[in-house]
Amino acid sequence: MFAWRSMSTLMLLVLALGWVGCPAMPPSNLTLDVGAVTVNLNSCPAQVTLTNTGTQWLRWRAESDTASVVVHPESNEEFEWLRQGESVVVTIAAADTTADLTAQVQFINEFEAADIETVTVTVEQSTADPVVAPAMLATAGGTFLMGSNSGESGEEVREITLNPFSIGAFEVTAGEYARILNWANAQGLLQLIQSPTAVVVRTGGQQIARANRFDNTDYAITYNGCGAFSAAVRDGISLENYPVYRINWFGAVAYCNWLSENQGLDPAYNLATWALVDTPTNGYRLPFEAEWEFAAAWDGDKHWTYGFMSDTIDATRANFDHNNPMGFLTGPDISPVGFYDGTNGTVDSPSPLGAYDMTGNVWEWCYEGGTTQGVLVRITRGGSWGNIAENARTARRYFIDGETFTESTGFRVARSTL
After folding, report:
1. Among candidates 379, 416, 101, which has minimal Cα distance to 268?
2. Measuring CA to CA, which residue among 409, 55, 397 is closest to residue 219?
3. What is the pLDDT of residue 14?
4. CA–CA dist 353, 169 (Å, integer)
């Protein structure tokens, strides 16, 4: 009863004020800071600022006249509230930049039918940066002593003979992985599942990678909404030359095949089965773990404990145990590939074969795997930025579910010498 009487009293007061000539409240009003934007593959998305310059709340939504131009926040299906005097930054992206296009995006005020602001969007035809072949280190292979005397299961010392092969001098970077995704996307090989903060990347139904959208920084790769992937930016630092991470084993295998195809080589894997093809090819692949350990530890006579020809480790030679040499505010505490080259206060720290970061930075996927408690796991090597010295040894083996995305795991490539 009290609530009913109070509400009735309030309504009567409002009516009474109106009868004595109280002026009407000014209407809500949408205002845009620009009337036109241009987007292309490498300068996308564009941003506009939408402001309510009236003195009442309003609800707005955006409508694009083509599905090729999308708006975020995504308000096409329902209105968004905007307080009087407040602004919201809206991003406008092109889902397809393979052809020139002009589109109109309208911002509509639900409360004022005539209050419509329009942005003209010019989409420029553009293409992604080209893929560049990685630096490789060749070896004749041969016989070496694999393993250690640590007593760890699977690390027993044994004699292994390898055929000639080559291996990447550096871990695959976020920039390199982004360029391969752009190439694969242009070939129609990707399925992209987008959420407000991330993109799940699939090929043939298999999830292989994840990328940020907009301001998210969880992943090493960012998708700009215009069909282009690029290295993410964290704490103001571009990850272009940092190791890619949160790429699962399948994403590493797909990268190898697509790099082979891009470079005119024969793919090493059948992506229908995710197994090596029956006959060895000249294409890129993941290293076998024996190849990885040979490149990291064997100098022809001695098996080194760490991947830079040393049996001891410290922060001038490897990125391990949360050293965080770049000063990131949040993890992962990665460093640029090849950072430990004798500059930046470091000691030049290549492996016996000349490869960098074979101890620390990120764990590296190898080809082999097995089943543990019904889960298909894959072998990783080398330790990461977050591991203690014991787990960064060249003989250390670590098993991870091949489907898993971790901020501590990346990879490098290898090739058979035929």
Report:
1. 416
2. 409
3. 39
4. 9
- pLDDT > 70: what percent of the chain? 92
What CA–CA distances, in Å, run from 246 to 220, 235, 242? 7, 18, 13
Model pLDDT for residues 240-291, shown as the tens digit of each residue: 999 999 999 999 999 999 999 999 999 999 999 999 999 999 999 999 999 9
Widest CA span in the chain:
101
Q: Assign 76 a pLDDT band (cuts: 50, 70, 90).
A: low
Look up residue 20 and give its two tokens: 């004595």
CA distances to 53, 128, 281, 402 from 79, in Å: 18, 35, 56, 42
Helix/strand/coil for 305:
coil
Identify which of 227, 196, 195, 222 has the alpha carbon closest to the alpha carbon of residue 209. Answer: 222
pLDDT tens-digit readout, 335-394: 999 999 999 999 999 999 999 999 999 999 999 998 778 888 999 999 999 999 999 999
CB 67, CB 81: distance < 8 Å:
no
373 HSE (CA, 13 A, CB side)? 3
Listed in sequence order, the residues at least 6 apart from 72 whose beta carbon sits closer than 8 Å to its beta carbon are: 45, 90, 91, 93, 196, 213, 214, 225
| Residue 398 · residue 380 · CB < 8 Å | yes
Residue 293 backbone phi and psi in degrees, to 5: -70, -40
pTM for the model stands at 0.81
The strand pairing partners of 303, in sequence order, are: 298
Give how far Cα 82 sits from Cα of 18, 55, 151, 251, 278, Å. Answer: 26, 11, 65, 41, 61
> Which residues have a Cβ under 8 Å from the Cβ of 365 and sit 6 or more positions away?
249, 252, 286, 378, 379, 380, 409, 410, 411
Tokens encoding 303: 């098996």
SS3 for 292?
Answer: helix
Alpha-carbon distance of 269 to 363, in angstroms, equals 22
CB 356 within 8 A of CB 169: yes
More confident residue, 406 or 9: 406
Q: What is the pLDDT of residues 101-125, one digit of tens each?
A: 899 999 999 888 889 999 999 988 8
Across 157-183, average pLDDT: 97
| CA gap 261, 339 in Å, rounded | 30
Residue with the bigger pLDDT between 307 and 113: it is 307
Burial of 195 (0-12, 13-18, 19+ CB in 10 A): exposed
